[in-house]
Structure of L-lactate dehydrogenase complex protein LldF:
Amino acid sequence: MTGTWIGMPAFPVAARKALADSQLRVNLRNATGTIRARREAVVAEKPDWEALRQAGKEIKDRTIANLDEHLLELERNVAMAGGTVHWARDAAEANRIVIDLTRRAGASEVVKVKSMATQEIELNEALADAGIAAYETDLAELIVQLGHDKPSHILVPAIHRNRAEIREIFAREMPDVPAGLTDSPAELAAAARAHLRRKFLSAKVAVSGANFAVAETGSLVVVESEGNGRMCLTLPEVLISVVGIEKVVPAWQDLEVFLQLLPRSSTGERMNPYTSIWSGVTPGDGPREFHLVLLDNGRTNALADEVGRQALRCIRCSACLNVCPVYERTGGHAYGSVYPGPIGAILTPQLRGAGADPVAASLPFASSLCGACFEACPVLIDIPEALVHLRAEAVDAQRRKGSGKGVGERLAMRAAGWVFSSRRRFEAAQRGAALGGRVLGRRGRIGRLPWPLSKWTDARDAPAPPPESFREWWRRTRGTGE
């Protein structure tokens, strides 16, 4: 279990359905456009932005290269501060730890801070199966939960919903919704605040993730914009944080870099409204118990890949989603994973394994390779490079399974080599293509080619070949074919 949604189709099928939803495209275009503009404005204020990106990359690379040492240091310092560290190899083990700790606290419900790691391991579903209710407290996550929906964005999980849709969800699903609720943002936020305040005051157990874990001090860091995280981290008696092993940074000073990169790249702010940092437990202040669950769940597999491991630098800012032309048109659900967009296209296949399922196998191909994601990434993850690398792995995985995939490609390449090796054969192929383009083309585009070339046109636009090749034009105008 690693964050792909059971029953979801592979990306090409899901994307085709998403493209037919005009309201979804409007919602996505408006939201991503707003976030992009805000990010560009605050990034432009930093003359040392490129130096910060380089520093973030180097800190992450050094940390990943010595990950075992930093994790052991983190464990020691969390224990010295009064916390308890648990190690989870996979989703099942992490879920079991959280369930056992919740039951030991005598709780039948938990409040949750927004956390990609707990979505990845499907903790809410595991808690429900154990008879424990989980309440999301982030506004966007609450909208997704009440709507029986799936998140579609790393930063703004309900980005695919507009105000009118949110009001309908609240009116239908929120038990204590105010009468006459409108779609005013202030009214919607006030309704959510009143609903959640009761949960904050009654919950014994809270579950969080973390943006960073500082090995030097055993401190965890959560940044957020609404204050719900601060309530979860301070009011309950027991705090359980599920954190991917790649979230560790060596030293307190490293936060100086990342707390400049993250808010600007994610929300387009100079600083997050709430930055919560805690180390273990403090008698008489905050939770009486703190448990840190360090999650592997495929991360060591990614670590072993020299090209793919750069995905472990990710600080979950979502900048790559907001500039991606594919994401802007299909939304996050088409990726079939809790990690959508360009970063999800390289992270999910590595956590799952190349070719593990149709969703994971299709994701490296869910990109135009335009490079906008690399330009936006605050820690310089070369996503296009990783995508090409993972495409090769996906093809190799199919070959190892003996599926026969790739045979047609090899035959096509041999045929192309035979055609290209002769000028006469090449020119004959050009004339044939031009004739086919005149027959099949419409407004400069070919709608669908016959099999096996339909494999290309089913997923991509194919421009109609020009009626005259360059060689023919040169021969006609200059009198020579050379």
In short: The mean pLDDT is 91.
